[in-house]
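Two proteins were folded this term; both appear here.
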Amino acid sequence: MSDETTTRAPGWAELDPALTAPKRLAAVALLSRAGNADFAFVREHLQVSDSDLSKQMTALQQAGYVDTTKTGRGRGATTTFKLTRAGRAAYRRHREVLQSLLGE
């Protein structure tokens, strides 16, 4: 065995922890194609509750992967999500690792 083999982390260790949760990965995948999307659009496509979506998007925002914009107040308020450059790069790397693990 070479030193490289013994010191290299397994491929799965390269997966981004912020993107291993299926709902967060699905949200990032959606935003990577949509550019930006409002709360209702993302909620409907992921088929999750308001509170669950808020929790997942907060985690992505804290990771620096999503920007959130809120306009208006009360019932007429709109929340819009957009993937950041860091989010796009992390999603791209995560996909590459997954493809490598799957042998694609």
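Next, the second protein.
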Amino acid sequence: MEKVAEEDPQYWDKQTQLASGAEETFRVGVETVRNYYNLSKGFHTWQLMCGCELRPDGSKGGYDQYAYDGRDYISFDKETLTWTAADLPAQNTKRKWEREPAIAQYRKAYLEEECIAWLQRYLEYGKETMLRTERPEGKVTRQAGFDDRESLVCQAYGFYPKEIELTWRKDGEVLHEDTFHRNTAPYPDGTYHAWLSITIDPKNRDQYRCHVEHASLAEPLVLAWEEPASSVEFALSMTTRAPPLSTSLMTMLGLFLRQCMDSHSVHLRLYSHSCSSSPHSMRYFYTGVSEPGQGLPRFIAVGYVDGQLFVQYDSNTRSMESRAPWMEKVDKEDPQYWERNTRNFRASEETFRVSVETVRNYYNLSKGFHTWQWMYGCELRPDGSKGGYFQFAYDGRDYISLDKETLTWTAADLPAQNTKRKWEREPAIAQGRKVYLEEICIEWLQRHLEYGKETLLRTGVGLDDLWEQSSALILSNSVFAEKRQEGYKAASTSNGGSNSSSRGSDPTNPTV
């Protein structure tokens, strides 16, 4: 972008003036729409997402849409010059804007002409980077499902440009049914990753192939599931059962969770039923950011039981708080529960503050907005078996994960090897996490199910509902073990059952 000043010395001044004008418009807009919804004062967001695209065949595309508090509000159809209101309050804006046809005419002209002209100019400025191609790498993983079914997940990563097509095929036929596609998402190094899953009968597993088509490939990359070299297959990173870490961050930033850039809305639904075919689960999410802002805490942690939010902590309140009425019952059994876990969260907050910077240095990245995230949980299946996972991400990308069966760490890339080596020098870290997942977490899951049985042991709790709750309060991860376990020797002290250490940091949340 340094090249723009050579062609247009006034560029930055003009853009600053435009942005300052937009700032004032947004200041008024966020309050005006709050009144349309008759909401109380507090933290609210008003967002605009617009853009244009120039396709290989020369055709042009564009969109212009608004959201309030993370939900669709109004969008523009540039072909018909009309506005589509998402709900009744948004009709106020629709009527107002349609009384002034020049607004729609200007937006159409911007999207089809001015935006395209600037896009072409920017491509010329950055052609060394933006017009490059990088080949995708790929793999297929699998995960056991329910009712004798399983999921195959095709993952493509490290590619550029963003446009890519993944398809599942069986005996050469392209399949669409029982597939789930996640948005193509960026990596910190400027490349992208994407995946496509399909639910299958394991008996026919060998008949399925994933085809990856990309501008960097002369021929499609064809992938199939392969038996892992070791006797233990690493667990798929919960991508088919929990919100991806990067999406959790998107929720934090108030982006449009339900609007994909390719105009396809994708909803992942997780059902936790009381019927015999589904497991019960307890999951936690932590997120720490390097640059907090208004409404965006430096650290936040939340916990879910069977998809229902039940606890929350953030660095603004610095207190663990209940988010489910049935959690009031814990006071009777354990009066020190909230105080003890608040101390644990505060220790984790400090660990995250250090970790987000430590890993930034591992990647040799410049200072700015970065995230360090942790997602973990356990589940109790109908047959009595137990499952669990621990995984970390940096800037929305997989970083390191634990295989609790082999007590080993899997580093996603070279910088993560630093953490892998550090943690494997202390075997007690992996041992403590295994104990937590298989014993302490399961015990607390059962206790929480008992506390909340009137609501949790009914049917129909979905991940869409989880996302709805998270939109209002930001997503990340939380609560920790309340019970000291014999054999758990990971630098802990007896603290009323809390997993705190004499060093003031949680031994299951070590520094990286």
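The chain has a mean pLDDT of 78. Residues 134 and 160 are 5 Å apart (CA to CA). These notes refer to the second protein only.
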